[in-house]
From TrEMBL:
Protein family per UniProt: Belongs to the WD repeat SEC13 family.
Pfam families given in the database record: WD40
Subcellular location: Nucleus, Nuclear pore complex
Keywords: Hydrolase, mRNA transport, Nuclear pore complex, Nucleus, Protein transport, Repeat, Translocation, Transport, WD repeat
Organism per entry: Marasmiellus scandens
Originating gene: SEH1
InterPro entries xrefs: Sec13/Seh1_fam, WD40/YVTN_repeat-like_dom_sf, WD40_PAC1, WD40_repeat_dom_sf, WD40_rpt
WD repeats: 8-49, 54-88, 293-324, 354-386
Coiled-coil boundaries: none
Name of the featured protein: Epoxide hydrolase, soluble (SEH)
Primary localization: nucleus
Chain positions covered by the region annotation Disordered: 90-111, 398-420
Segments of skewed composition (Basic and acidic residues): 411-420
Length: 420
């Protein structure tokens, strides 16, 4: 492999997320500096040039997600200020109007071509993840926040993007499970604090912030043994990309080290159809063994009879799960999770477990065929994992590290170190 591009000094603070659009020609990045930048690829020389740059939130931006291009150029962003914002690329975007108190009614500067179309204010904690649903389900958006709630929104006015309906609000921690795997195989304990916002963002109403904090503490107090620190909250989400099985998401919350596979249905309440637990038979865990799963990614199916889901956590492990859907005689979806026997249940097994990062894993992502997995960790490296022997065995396929080179000039170039 070779280095194909390098963006230096992308933001003035830590970059929290980077997301390609559908075609891979534009890249959206966000940062602790509260800004979003959109980069355009110059295919002739392989360089990335900033196309737009704007202050998007009143606190650090945690995640960005692109909608499918059939809906237009749309980005959703989540933030530590407890909001989710919908942005649309509009060359004719008007400058923000100034209110009587001197504050702007929109977040983007007048030079930005991205217009703020909607602000979602339901979260009672830091919104850690946001993800658009596969396009065949319509213009839908899922979010998860440190109040442990998974929220699914649907756009009711697609031309204007102004009205979004909260169609599902799910407490991931207390969601009932139909899986035979015990959800409560580990005790919930208070984790170390994370650098999340604990004060009111600039311009926010103190009464609203106080009310949100009280609601969050009240929710935590109703759960025995469950801490009210934000580190115990929701962490990550990923949609199943296969239309055949309906609307299914993988979600992680708390520090129990598990991922819940949640099925949404218009005819009944959401249900946990499977729990991915690396040690379901383990006794009640102590604080040293408890960890959060910080990232999850559902692989494209590409005709396989099973699913692949990758997870990464604060224990430094990257795990690859082989998930088999429920089987039924009619060849249908297998929606009835209450059937007796394994044939009526979703099952999963770990086919890859790697701890090469030796530190927190912050992101896992698949290639377009689900045959190569990349992971990024606090060790400063992006590591690759590749399937072998029919996908039942996974092995390391190399790593990429970006480190500051010795100063041999004034350009401050960086080297890419490849290992295989």
């Amino acid at each position: 492999m070779i280095q194909t591009g390098l963006i230096q000094n992308a933001h003035s603070d830590l970059v929290t997320d980077a997301s390609y659009d559908f075609y891979g020609l534009r890249l959206a990045t966000c940062s602790l500096d509260q800004r979003i930048k959109v980069w355009q690829l110059d295919e002739e020389n392989g360089t990335w040039k900033v196309e737009d740059d704007w202050k998007a939130h009143d606190a650090a931006v945690s995640r960005v997600s692109w909608a499918h291009p059939e809906f237009g150029s749309i980005i959703a962003s989540s933030s530590f200020d407890r909001t989710v914002k919908i942005w649309e690329h509009s060359p004719d975007a008007q400058p923000p109007t100034v209110n009587g108190n001197g504050s702007a009614s929109q977040s983007q500067p007048s030079s930005s071509k991205w217009a703020e179309r909607a602000v979602l204010l339901d979260a009672r904690g830091t919104v850690r993840a946001v993800a658009f649903a596969p396009h065949h389900f319509g213009l839908k958006l899922a979010t998860i926040s440190t109040d442990n709630f998974l929220r699914v929104y649907e756009c009711l006015e697609q031309p204007s993007l102004a009205t979004w309906q909260l169609s599902e609000e799910i407490d991931v921690h207390t969601l009932p499970s139909t899986s035979s795997t015990s959800v409560h195989s580990r005790a919930h304990t208070v984790a170390l604090a994370t650098p999340t916002q604990t004060i009111a963002p600039e311009g926010a109403s103190p009464s609203l912030v106080a009310q949100a904090l009280l609601q969050q503490q009240g929710s935590a107090a109703s759960r025995p043994g469950f801490g009210n620190r934000e580190a115990d909250g929701g962490w990550c989400i990923s949609w199943c990309r296969d239309r055949y099985w309906g609307e299914i998401l993988a979600a992680g919350c708390g520090i129990s080290g598990i991922i819940k596979i949640i099925q949404l249905s218009p005819s009944r309440r959401p249900t946990t159809i499977l729990v991915l637990d690396p040690s379901p038979s383990a006794p009640v865990a102590d604080a040293d063994k408890a960890f959060a799963v910080t990232c999850v990614s559902w692989a494209p199916s590409c005709g396989r009879s099973y699913h692949l889901i990758a997870t990464g956590g604060r224990d430094g492990h990257v795990r690859i799960w082989k998930v088999k859907p429920a089987a039924d005689d009619d060849g249908e979806q297998g929606d009835d999770a209450e059937m007796s026997g394994d044939e009526g249940r979703w099952t999963a097994s770990v086919v890859g477990d790697f701890d090469e990062h030796q530190s927190t894993v912050g992101r896992v992502e698949w290639n377009v065929t689900g045959t190569v997995l990349s992971s990024a960790g606090n060790d400063g490296r992006v590591r690759l994992w590749k399937a072998a022997l029919g996908g039942n065995i996974w092995r390391p396929a190399g790593s990429v590290g970006v480190e500051q080179a010795e100063e041999t000039g004034t350009d401050g170039d960086k080297d890419v170190d490849m290992q295989s």
